[in-house]
Design brief:
Dolichol-phosphate mannosyltransferase subunit 1, endoplasmic reticulum, Spore Coat Polysaccharide Biosynthesis Protein SpsA, Chain A, alpha/beta, two-stranded parallel sheet, 7-stranded mixed beta sheet, magnesium, DPM1-like, manganese
Length: 241
């Protein structure tokens, strides 16, 4: 395991059935960081994909080298497991399904990374609901679910952030470690709880508008069970924060 440099970014990339997306995402990230002169590593944590994602991840690790690409079998929550191996000063969490638009990957340094430097923020969160951010490729039902979930969180939790369920964020490593010690949620509620706990602990949060594009390959895991879990988690947070 490489020792962290003065500035190093670790990307935690949970995967499930991302055989077709993973090589492109990794290539985009590696090119972006290399062109920007940012030291980086990409940690792939696969949740038992049956489609061959694990084999692809192992090949990518061989191609790029284990100092840049690290493939893990998860033990418990993917992010918590990935954190044990991260050597970066900053941690980026994002999806591997290309829903975080290709342009967004290329904007990691000029927008997300620069935003952190400008405001010295503990967290920089991508937002679909502010400025020129938006969602593309979703049907009306999915848009209503997303908007409704975000509205409920704003009303009940008053978090001071415009997008609680988004999953493109940059954290200071030590901040992410402290938040994970406090958070108990899983799935979609996890992202929401991270922001709520961050506000409770007095961490600063910056936001940048992002374009979220529906996945090209594979299927979303969002379903009735996830929606029920989200509502239960939201009520739990409301009652305990």
């Amino acid at each position: 395991m490489a020792a962290p440099g003065p500035e190093r970014v670790s990307v935690l990339l949970p995967t499930y059935n991302e055989r077709d997306n993973l090589p492109l995402v990794v290539w985009l990230l590696a090119r972006t960081f290399s062109d920007s002169g940012i030291d980086f590593e990409i940690i792939i944590i696969d949740d038992g994909s049956p489609d061959g994602t694990q084999e692809v991840a192992q090949q990518l690790e061989k191609i790029y080298g284990s100092d840049k690409i690290l493939f893990l079998f998860p033990s418990g929550t993917a992010y918590i497991h990935g954190m044990k191996y991260a050597t970066g000063n900053f941690i980026v969490i994002m999806d591997a399904d290309l829903s975080h638009h290709v342009r967004l990957v290329f904007l990691i340094k000029p927008i997300v990374y620069r935003k952190q430097k400008e405001g010295n923020f503990d967290i920089v969160s991508g937002t679909r609901y502010k400025g020129n951010g938006g969602v593309y490729g979703w049907d009306l039902k999915r848009k209503l679910i997303s908007r409704g979930a975000n509205f409920l969180t704003q009303v009940l939790l008053r978090p001071g952030a415009s997008d609680l369920t988004g999953s493109f964020r940059l954290y200071r490593k030590e901040v992410l470690q402290k938040l994970m010690e406090k958070c108990v949620s899983k799935g979609y509620v996890f992202q929401m709880e991270m922001i709520v706990r961050a506000r409770q602990l007095g961490f600063t949060i910056g936001e940048v508008p992002i374009s979220f594009v529906d996945r090209v390959y594979g299927e979303s895991k969002l379903g009735g069970n996830e929606i029920v879990s989200f509502l239960k988690g939201l009520l739990t947070l409301f009652a305990t924060t």
